[in-house]
Amino acid sequence: MTSNRLLVTVSLLAASVWIGAPAMAQRAVETRNFELSVNSNDNDTSGSTSTGTLGGSLRGTLPIGAFLGLSATGGYSTSRVRTGDVLPLEDGTISVTRPSCSFDNLDGELSLFARRPNLGRIGLSYGIGELSSDCSVNSQFLLSGDDKLDTDRQRLDLELYLSDFTIGGAYTQLNLDSGPELETTAFHASWYPLDSLKITLSGDDQYEDNTYGIRFEHQPEFLGDGFGVQLGYAKTDGDVDRQVISVGLSYFFGTRVTLKDRDRLYR
Fold first, then answer.
1. What's this model's pTM, rounded to 2 decimal places?
2. Which candidate, 131, 126, 116, places its Cα nearest to that of 154?
3. In a domain, 241, yes or no
4. What is the CA radius of gyration of the chain?
5. What domain range includes position 38?
């Protein structure tokens, strides 16, 4: 994909600039820190009923020397899906119930990154996941042949800091259990109208469909910069249109800094 090659080229160029830039006093990660997040998504898909997902994650980040950082994230989410149409039984009659499934997702990721707070960030990540289903009728994932599906992924991401703006992109390879390899290229642009308020526009080509979104994140000053609130909206244009509204809350252990400094010195 042309966009994938472009992202890799830009990343290599940024790395050469990063290496040649003069050293700064600030490190990639100022101090070890932790972030606990809870989020809820409402997914409205055309031709089907809405589904909801509730999840949480814990991320820890620590410095490695002057310009390297390491972060580890673990998460869990659960969602319930119900078919949009009432399905007929084998004898041709209509069932009064709709088949439904609940899905549990366990996920973990390890990221190594280099950052200079006056320039930007370059990172490599590896993640694994396990998706399991519990349905009211017999079902299985086609790729795995049972009710569990394992995944692993690799990601290259890049961010450039331009005063009150951040421009970034990521290239991800997702490997499904005994299945095909999926590639995704994503871009985002963020603006800090206030040091503790961020507005982000994003887009990606996941599964060859285009998704566009907007996200707001705020750290209320009256709560001492220890909490974060997120609100997002995304729309996918493809064979099946999908809209997602997301709401999230975060708690930051120990660190009391503005959102802009958190993104560039701690996360």
1. 0.80
2. 126
3. yes
4. 21
5. 2-81+100-265
